[in-house]
């Protein structure tokens, strides 16, 4: 079988190792990984930078973490050349699990360290400083999403319907926070987007 | 069937996360704090702090952390697999059915609607976290400095985290008595 040939297995292994490397050397969220992605893919001959930028916009539009989405796509792309459709599906598994591996290793190690430092005052002081920063970073992420949703940079126009929808959702959350699951709100808003925008 | 629950909770979260790791905070709050009672608000904020300064994707880091904390290594694997699975399925299907310039107008509109909603959800989460966690003048000061550096000077998130850690530790060195009461 083509998808299980020696050449294909070599490619899956390469995918796993490359994405391990990318995962290990990227800090600070999905888009911080982009330069690493571009360099590695060119080296491996999986994808040219401009093709990758298309993949990136797809990855931002689909559910899930941007880096995971990109990894799955590139894994499919690299797998298809050595093993056809089945090769693509397997390639995606290897690239995605490669990306996750450093996270699992680092988080497990860190969890154990933090358990030991539970009552340590220095650790608490460390987090005392970092927690407000985390809140600011989440606020900034929200602002970035707002910017790209409410303003169309290409034609320099404000998209009012999405602002109205956002305000309506904010009012609903204010009064029914405990009763409504955010997934329901997201699903209904997506449908409203199709109908109204 | 705790392992299945861990997988399923994170599968749902992964499926409805649009716009990067931080956009999953409102979903984590609902699912892990309100519904499953696996975490408190304070612990979630700590987990997000850890997730963003550890190598790897924030979403995967947060998922692994929660799973490992609940049910050890296998728990961590289940939550990680759960948060990845929707990405893998959706992208693989798109790869085989369309090409990478896939820009269906209906999908675009649905995506716009979802994002408009997520802005409101994130805003609400930030407000809750702020009220719950920034309760003294030092915390407020660090928050304002962080906002200034981020919004005005566009400093890299990792640098900002280092600044925050230094401010926290620095305050403890400078004002040990006062800080002792604030630390928990």
TrEMBL record, chain A:
Subcellular compartments: Cell membrane
Source organism, top-level taxon: Bacteria
Pfam family, one: Chromate_transp
Residues annotated as transmembrane: 15-39, 51-74, 86-113, 125-146, 158-176
Lipid bilayer topology: Multi-pass membrane protein
Principal subcellular localization: membrane
GO cellular component: plasma membrane
InterPro entries: CHR_Transporter (IPR052518), Chromate_transpt (IPR003370)
GO molecular function: chromate transmembrane transporter activity
Keywords: Cell membrane, Membrane, Transmembrane, Transmembrane helix
Family according to the record: Belongs to the chromate ion transporter (CHR) (TC 2.A.51) family.
PANTHER family: CHROMATE TRANSPORT PROTEIN-RELATED, CHROMATE TRANSPORTER
Name of the protein this chain belongs to: Chromate transporter
From TrEMBL, chain B:
Subcellular localization: Cell membrane
MF annotations from Gene Ontology: chromate transmembrane transporter activity
Entry-linked Pfam families: Chromate_transp
Protein family according to the UniProt entry: Belongs to the chromate ion transporter (CHR) (TC 2.A.51) family.
Membrane topology listed for this record: Multi-pass membrane protein
Keywords in alphabetical order: Cell membrane, Membrane, Transmembrane, Transmembrane helix
Cellular component terms (Gene Ontology): plasma membrane
Transmembrane segments: 6-28, 49-68, 74-98, 110-130, 142-175
Superkingdom field: Bacteria
Protein name in UniProt: Chromate transporter
